[in-house]
Design brief:
InterPro entries: ATP-grasp (IPR011761), ATP_grasp_subdomain_1 (IPR013815), D-Ala_lig_Van_CS (IPR000291), Dala_Dala_lig_C (IPR011095), Dala_Dala_lig_N (IPR011127), PreATP-grasp_dom_sf (IPR016185). The chain has about 950 residues and is of the alpha+beta class. The chain is built from 31 helices and 41 strands. The strands form 10 sheets. Strands 15, 16, 17, 18, 19, 20 and 21 form a 7-stranded antiparallel beta sheet that branches. Strands 27, 36, 37, 38, 39, 40 and 41 form a 7-stranded mixed beta sheet that branches. Strands 2, 22, 23, 24, 25 and 26 form a 6-stranded mixed beta sheet that branches. The radius of gyration is 28 Å and the shape is globular.
Length: about 950
């Protein structure tokens, strides 16, 4: 299990005696491939850190633990293991994104040559050493209330810095916004002489403050956006009025951008109209405590936003910045938009949540001279601001200048024949989630996640002579094949196991499916072995993972053709999997095979690679790029299944809803003789139909399994019959006052809503009639989040009594909270849970349930369930809420449900549990559960004894699929 590393424990490596270097370094242009094989080192395993972490290390990994700071290499030369400390969290509203970024860094840098320790800063700037398991939490709130019992706290930040000075070689700060990018954490580390990745404190302070940075940009000769600073309680209306007039903006209705000067790139950014509205928005930002310095800027109408990653490839303190291919940010509006939507900006939601309201183009669809000038300007800015290692620089391209032209402006950097380039924001610690701009742009020029992160760390180490012996930080990276076009992706290779990860589809959960498929692919790529108990005699098979997208059917095809099985599947290169939506992936596929666009991209890519190699050739540790520039390939579904059979691939199904869960895809794969993950045809079909699921388990009441009464109505009845009569009939039959409505056959969150009155039912029926893609938040009488709707609308709707539960809230200040800080009234003795089941047919094992904590309304939205940084899951349920005895009974009931339904491989069961007696009231079963970075199944696997880290967990699911096919 490559991911298991604990603070103060150093990993060993495992290798077979007769495996050749060529076998271990094989990588294909189109696939995610595990590139290293651990070597077994038998050493003692002392633990001189907090004993709380010892229990979280699987017993089978203890043989791997080494205390020495060096390992013998094949050449009898000792290479020092680099000890990296990742720090995440912080006081800003972006701390949830910080946790996601840190988890991504952890996943992709750790290895036998690099030891990772994890640290967390809470909102009050208290520092903690945390386990790697806590890094896989959905949000900081998932473990904030456990910090005192599970983490090692420090009395003060200086004590924390003193610990870092002795415990790690170098720190990788992954704190976004305040304290992470404003020089706070950097100054702390500098005072303690702790090496760290990134820009120094003084330069961070200047670049982070948007107003100060704008002034410096202007002094450095760059075109800037005119801005006005509002500070503290000083609201000088007359001066702001004068600024509006100077910039020829209507003082009553002129459009401007209002944003905090020191709060990251997304938090608090809004549009205002006129002087009064601007001051009101600025006052709101200040009163909310986001920042006491607020900028009012000219709104750049008609411009295109871009962002550029800059990598420093110099040696030591010599700065040699190289900008990657920039990304154009295109805001899209597929539905009728009101004025507010037309004025929309690239805000926090659009940046971090999967939405069709934004699309990305790398390289941008700008003239070539503009792209070259963006790269040149970003590199120049990086150097003049004294930045280090890497940064993200945002800006705008205006085809025709919207700024006042003057002799002074005309001489500034950014003016070109094609338009004006303006740099607006400097991000000292770029987001590092799986699909972040850092990884998107790095993949375009040949870097995998691991390669770019390790290159950044290695670059930082070059500034510190004491770390020069840590020259193995990049040695484990694979080299790109010199002639990838001559290599057969599906060639037989010793020790290679092929996996096709399929995601996408046509349902409203297709974006979650993309997230699941990406998580499966990248995690399987990191998986090294399948059975630690056998590693002394056999290295685990490497995985060659090919991402595959089931493309949506053309919307203009007839319903008859849609039902046919002749669908399209694309096999994808690494870079295209890092897009945010399936539509964006499909557009990128078509763009990649368009000759002119492909030729331009290749030309620009080669230029960036040339620029990079000029600097990277100096440090001998750089092993080269590990991603090739290849095109996606299109197959019919039938051709794709035939291909999977020919290359003996196992299919990891990550298609949520539709043919991925109703048994169709499973039937086709079985007919083609292709092994796949998850339950078989019959179980999938049964669980997709929520009524059939209830009927299958309705005889289990004596075993502690209960079902919810249901009433099925057709869409036509809801649309055409009197709503008041339907409401009265439903509430009478179901003996309830509040209803829960859900599609008869669809995913676990799509179209699910709480209805409290006939007016709510009427609104829902109207959404069906007009094929709403989503129901906006708070459209019903009781508060709720955005509800994604099935497309096309379902023919059958299920109505159930809405089960009322008491909310669970975490509050460290309330006197009514229990010892863990949890507030729960407990009047209703039922709580909602979700729990994963894993195993063979008839032998399913229940993982530890998670208690779901809702943040917007009574029903979890898609975002709360699957998007990292939102939603709270308590895993396992706190003993103050449910006793160990009741929890044990609950898990046994879950296993009974799973085996009765014929589940195998893995699935997720949603239910209510009675905290007193452990009885289970089943809601539904998901045979293709979400496997995103925030999925509760990962949390649950981590609390197993011994814990299963993500790489081991995903590998186990593949093993179960293979074992079933061999029986």
């Amino acid at each position: 299990m490559a991911s298991i590393t604990q603070p103060s424990l150093t990993r060993g490596v495992c290798k077979t005696a007769n495996s050749s270097k060529s076998e271990l370094n094989c990588i294909h242009q189109k696939s995610f491939v595990s590139s290293t094989v651990p070597k077994l080192v038998l050493k003692n395993s002392p633990s001189n850190f907090n004993r709380n972490f010892q229990a979280q290390i699987p017993k089978s990994t203890l043989v791997e633990v080494v205390h020495d700071s060096t390992i013998e290499s094949n050449g009898n030369q000792k290479d020092r293991i680099l000890k990296v400390g990742i720090i995440c969290g912080g006081p800003s509203a972006e701390r949830g994104i910080s946790l996601n970024s840190a988890r991504s860094v952890l996943d992709h840098i750790q290895g036998d040559d690099l030891h990772v320790s994890c640290y967390y800063i809470d909102t009050n700037l208290n520092a903690y050493a945390i386990s790697t398991a806590q890094m896989y939490s959905n949000t900081p709130a998932d473990f904030d209330f456990k910090l005192e019992s599970l983490a090692q706290g420090f009395q003060s930040l200086p004590e924390f810095a003193e610990h870092l000075a002795s415990a790690v070689d170098i720190v990788f700060p992954v704190i976004h916004g305040r304290f992470g990018e404003d020089g706070g954490i950097q100054e702390l580390l500098e005072k303690a002489n702790v090496p760290f990745v990134g820009t120094s404190s003084n330069e961070c302070r200047q670049a982070f403050d948007k107003y100060d940075a704008s002034l410096e940009l202007k002094r450095q000769g760059f075109v800037t956006v005119p801005s006005f600073l509002v500070e503290g309680g000083r609201f000088n209306k007359a001066e702001l009025m004068k600024w509006f007039e100077t910039n020829q903006i209507n003082s009553e209705s002129g459009k401007v951008v209002v944003k905090p000067a020191r709060a990251g790139s997304s938090i608090g950014v809004t549009v205002a109209y006129g002087v009064e509205d601007s001051l009101e928005k600025a006052e709101g930002i200040i009163s909310e405590g986001i920042d006491d310095r607020v900028l009012v800027e000219v709104f750049l109408d008609g411009g295109s936003e871009f962002t550029s990653i800059v990598l420093d490839v110099g040696s030591g303190f010599y700065c040699h910045p190289v900008a990657f291919l920039p990304t154009e940010v295109e805001l899209q509006f597929h539905e009728s938009a009101n004025g507010g939507e037309k004025d929309a900006i690239f805000n926090y939601r659009r940046k971090y949540l999967p939405t069709q309201q934004v699309a990305y183009h790398t390289p941008p669809r700008f003239p070539t001279d503009v792209i070259e000038m963006i790269r040149e300007g970003a590199s120049l800015l990086f150097k003049r601001f004294g930045l280090r290692d890497f940064a993200r620089i945002d800006g705008w391209f205006l085809p025709s200048s919207h700024l006042s032209s003057s002799a002074e402006n005309d001489n500034k950097f950014g003016r070109s024949k094609s338009g004006t380039i303006i740099f607006t924001d400097i991000n000292l610690i770029s987001g590092m989630e799986q699909t972040s701009f850092l990884f998107q742009q790095a993949s375009k020029v040949g870097f995998s996640h691991s390669n770019i992160l390790r290159t950044i760390i290695q670059r930082a180490c070059l500034r510190f002579p004491a770390l020069s012996s840590c020259n193995s930080a990049s040695n484990a990276l694979p080299r790109q094949l010199k002639s990838p076009e001559n290599t057969d992706v599906f060639s037989e290779g010793r020790g290679i196991r092929k996996v096709f990860v399929m995601f996408g589809g046509e349902t409203s959960e297709r974006q979650v499916s993309l997230m699941s498929g990406r998580m499966c692919g990248l995690t399987c790529k990191l998986s090294m072995m399948t059975d630690l108990s056998r590693c002394y005699r056999l290295f685990w098979l490497q995985l060659e993972v090919t991402p595959c997208m089931l493309a949506p059917t053309n919307e203009y095809l007839s319903e008859l053709n849609k039902d046919k099985e002749s669908k399209t599947v694309w096999t994808l290169p690494y870079s295209l999997v890092l897009r945010h939506t399936t539509e964006e992936v499909l557009d990128a596929c078509l763009e990649a095979i368009e000759p002119a666009r492909a030729a331009l991209t290749s030309q620009l890519r080669n230029q960036v690679i040339t620029d990079l190699m000029e600097g990277l050739s100096t440090p001998s540790c750089f092993t080269g790029f590990d991603i090739s520039d290849v095109h996606p390939t299109k197959y019919s579904l039938e051709q794709w299944i035939k291909l999977a059979k020919e290359v003996e691939a196992t299919v990891f199904i990550a298609v949520h809803g539709g043919i991925g869960e109703d048994g169709t895809l499973q039937r086709l794969l079985e007919a083609g003789g292709v092994p796949y993950t998850g339950p078989g045809v019959i179980a999938s079909r049964t669980c997709m139909d929520k009524v059939a699921t209830s009927l299958a388990v309705e005889n289990l009441e004596n075993l502690g399994v209960l079902t919810i009464h249901k009433d099925v109505r057709s869409k036509e009845e809801l649309i055409n019959m009197p709503i008041n009569g339907i409401w009265h009939d439903l509430t009478t039959k179901l003996n309830c006052e509040t209803l829960c409505v859900k599609p008869g056959q669809d995913g676990c969150s799509t179209g699910v809503a709480r209805l409290c009155c006939p007016e709510d039912l009427a609104f829902y029926a109207n959404a069906l009639r007009n094929c709403f893609p989503r129901i906006p938040s708070n459209s019903f009488s009781k508060a709720h989040g955005v509800i994604e709707m099935p497309n096309p609308p379902p023919e059958q709707l299920i109505f159930e009594p809405f089960i009322e539960t008491d909310p669970i809230i975490f509050s460290s200040k309330s006197t009514k909270a229990n010892s863990n800080g949890l507030l729960w009234e407990g009047r209703s003795r039922w709580v909602e849970i979700t729990v994963g089941v894993v195993g063979k047919h008839g032998e399913m094992h229940s993982l530890s349930p998670s208690v779901t904590v809702k943040e917007s309304g009574d029903i979890l939205s898609l975002e709360e369930k699957f998007q990292g940084g939102t939603g709270i899951n308590l895993t396992p349920p706190p003993s103050s809420i449910i006793s160990e005895e009741a929890l044990g009974k609950c898990k046994r009931s879950i296993e009974i449900i799973a085996n009765t339904l014929g589940l195998e491989g893995f699935s997720r069961i949603d239910a209510f549990v009675n905290v007193d007696n452990g009885e289970v009231l089943i809601i539904e079963v998901n045979t293709v559960p979400g496997m995103t970075p925030s999925t509760v199944l990962i949390h649950q696997a981590l609390v197993e004894e011994p814990p299963m880290y993500p790489q081991h967990f995903f590998r186990t699911l593949l093993d179960l699929a293979s074992e079933r096919s061999n029986n």
